[in-house]
Amino acid sequence: MRTLRLPAFSVRGGLSSSAATWVLLQQVLLRGLVAVKFLMIGRILGPEAIGSVSVALFAVAIGEALSDTGLSQAVIQGPVAPTRDELGSVWTTLATRGVLVGAVLVAIAPLMNNQFHLGGALLLLQLGALLPLLRGIASPSYYVMQRERRFQHVACIEVSAAFLDCCIGLTLALSGAGAYSLLIGMIVGESLKTTLTWATMKPRPPIRLRWSGIGHYINFSRWIWAGSVVNLVLNQFDKVMVGKLLGPAQLGAYQMSSRLAQMLLADAAIAMSQYLFPTFAARHRADPQASARLFKRSIGVIALGLAVVVVVLRLAAPMLFSLVLGPAWLPAVPLFKIFVINMAIGALIAVLVSYLRAVGDAKATTQASAIDVVVLLVCVPPATHFWGVTGIAWALTLGLSSAAAWMAYRTTRVVL
């Protein structure tokens, strides 16, 4: 009789520095800490304070998206590892970007304070300008670590920063710091992450002003920048409309329902894409067919899991909001039921984006985002008129579905 042999799990392989185990562990801890921080602070502060912080954070997101160089993805995807001098040019570019974005945010803070009816939140908006600065001066060796799939090292840094962020934020919220507690926690966490990238990662780039030597990244990174600009409209357009028309309290309810759905659905897939992008890229460089097989397995398993989670979360939504956030947040339940669908589609998009960028087709992801924008521009005005904030959420669903369909079509040109 022939003995049936089952594949054995290798403990050493499962805990090697490049194993997916570290990415999964990182994301479980990271997203768990973020969830604890936002949900507990949301329960303490209420919708209006969360709405004020949301304005500050999407101001940061707008500035970073408009100035996205795409260099981090280009370093990970490129066929040849960057030299130390090239990393110096990457650092100069990213640091300059951080300084400029921070300065612009400080300058426009009074305008945003007036437009979004925030009252005395001017300092809160200006404080957010520190985030792009801290991210910009971090060592670009962080991207080399991701390129080389040294996930254990990356996980230790990310979790350490998130733990400190959570502890500081909760301590300040309980001490009565209000909306500032969220931002100060994020700033302290980013400071630790930036420090650790320089203290623990090699090669350390030279700290001097140097922009030359990275022209070969431009062809790839320009599509990343274009995609970031388009995604800016996709990710912030709805929040701007809600905040401008309805004020910080409604924005807080909208943002928290979206954020909670993201934590429970999209974050896991987005986190997994941090493993899949360099893995797809490495497989594609060695064997394109192996990369295509890995993509098909990954997208199938993730799609099945998402379908189950969406059904469960929609059924449990009222109880979830009542237990986790309290009665003040119950009006946001209908929005949450829509957002779990949106975030499930977003999770699939994260996997599609990872694969398309890994095989060098960043153009397809930008085209998909453009399709999404067109759908939103057509659908949001009538949807808002007839159904208000709920109509905006359903318009997002249609746009995301259209973008996902286009990227799925583009992947068939590679995997079939």
Automatic annotation (TrEMBL):
Which keywords does this Swiss-Prot/TrEMBL entry list? Answer: Cell membrane, Membrane, Transmembrane, Transmembrane helix
Question: Has keyword Transmembrane helix?
Answer: yes
Q: How does it sit in the membrane?
A: Multi-pass membrane protein
- What is its subcellular localisation? Cell membrane
The cross-references to InterPro entries, in alphabetical order and at most eight, read:
Poly_Biosynth_Transport (IPR050833)
Superkingdom, taxonomy of origin? Bacteria
Pfam families, from UniProt? Polysacc_synt_3
Name the UniProt record assigns to this protein:
PST family polysaccharide export protein
